[in-house]
């Protein structure tokens, strides 16, 4: 059997063999297999003719294998975002096909900082930005948590969240709020940036929960005095909104004596004195309620 056209000429023979291989190879294998690697190398050292390059292009040959790999990762990220509504992929996450999307996303962050031996092109950064890629995962998560507080304030009109409170989706908002107060003081291993403090302030965030609670009690006492013309509240008295004002008043008396594990600051004593607060109820008989 003949060796094919041009068998007498070694150069033509190799060209014929190469052309036959391009027609017989599966497209996917051809673009990414060992023959594909050889063709990329050949083009870099100008061993491919214009005709050969055109033939490869007609098959959709991928000249930049790294770009192909990046596009594959980006497609997986788009699928993840569509399913989860965010791009904060856990580093250990693998797609259903086995693609290590978490590692890929982590590498994009490192490559943008030129820390991973790679480099992101401006158009790749733009593509990732267009889908809200989370470059700073901790900040992304904080912003997500902040939205829970915003929703709570919209629903309840305040930001003093009970410590045990959980949002409808199971998020421990009360614990998070407490953590922000600790972080503002540099405690608990966390730290708040100035813009985060500003965001919380914009919602009327209560940094000192105890002071807020005291002010709330004082406001109830003012309302009681305006209605009854005195501040000698019976110990069992409860306001119309359910606030246990009688207990609060009793707590102020014990706190002034340094009892109950609490202490009453001078400015609070002054505020109470200014409205005729009764420190010794035995000496004052309240009017009938």
UniProtKB/TrEMBL annotation:
Record InterPro entries: Helicase_assoc
Residues forming coiled coils: none
A Pfam family of this chain: HA
Domain Helicase-associated stretches: 69-133, 142-205, 213-277
Top-level taxon of origin: Eukaryota
PANTHER family cross-referenced by the UniProt entry: HELICASE-ASSOCIATED, HELICASE-ASSOCIATED DOMAIN-CONTAINING PROTEIN
Protein name: Helicase-associated domain-containing protein
Native organism taxonomy: Eukaryota, Sar, Alveolata, Dinophyceae, Suessiales
């Amino acid at each position: 059997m003949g060796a094919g056209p041009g068998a007498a000429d070694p150069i033509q023979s190799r060209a014929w063999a190469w052309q036959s291989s391009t027609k017989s190879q599966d497209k996917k294998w051809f673009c990414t297999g060992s023959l594909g690697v050889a063709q990329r190398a050949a083009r870099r050292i100008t061993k491919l003719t214009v005709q050969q390059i055109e033939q490869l292009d007609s098959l959709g040959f991928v000249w930049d294998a790294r770009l192909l790999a990046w596009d594959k990762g980006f497609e997986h990220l788009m699928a993840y975002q569509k399913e989860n509504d965010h791009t904060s992929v856990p580093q250990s996450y693998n797609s259903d096909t086995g693609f290590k999307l978490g590692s890929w996303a982590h590498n994009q962050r490192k490559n943008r900082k030129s820390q991973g031996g790679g480099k992101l092109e401006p158009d790749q950064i733009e593509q990732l930005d267009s889908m809200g890629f989370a470059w700073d995962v901790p900040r992304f998560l904080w912003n997500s948590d902040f939205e829970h507080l915003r929703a709570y304030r919209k629903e309840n009109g305040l930001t003093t969240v009970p410590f045990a409170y959980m949002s409808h989706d199971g998020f421990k908002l009360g614990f998070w709020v407490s953590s922000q107060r600790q972080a503002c003081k540099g405690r608990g291993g966390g730290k708040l940036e100035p813009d985060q403090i500003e965001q919380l302030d914009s919602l009327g965030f209560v940094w000192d929960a105890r002071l807020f609670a005291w002010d709330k009690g004082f406001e109830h006492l003012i309302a009681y005095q305006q209605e009854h013309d005195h501040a000698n509240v019976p110990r069992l008295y409860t306001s119309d909104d359910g606030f246990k004002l009688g207990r609060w008043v009793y707590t102020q008396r014990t706190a002034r004596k340094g009892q109950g594990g609490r202490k009453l600051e001078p400015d609070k004593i002054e505020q109470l004195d200014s409205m005729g607060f009764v420190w010794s109820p035995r000496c004052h008989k309240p009017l009938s309620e």
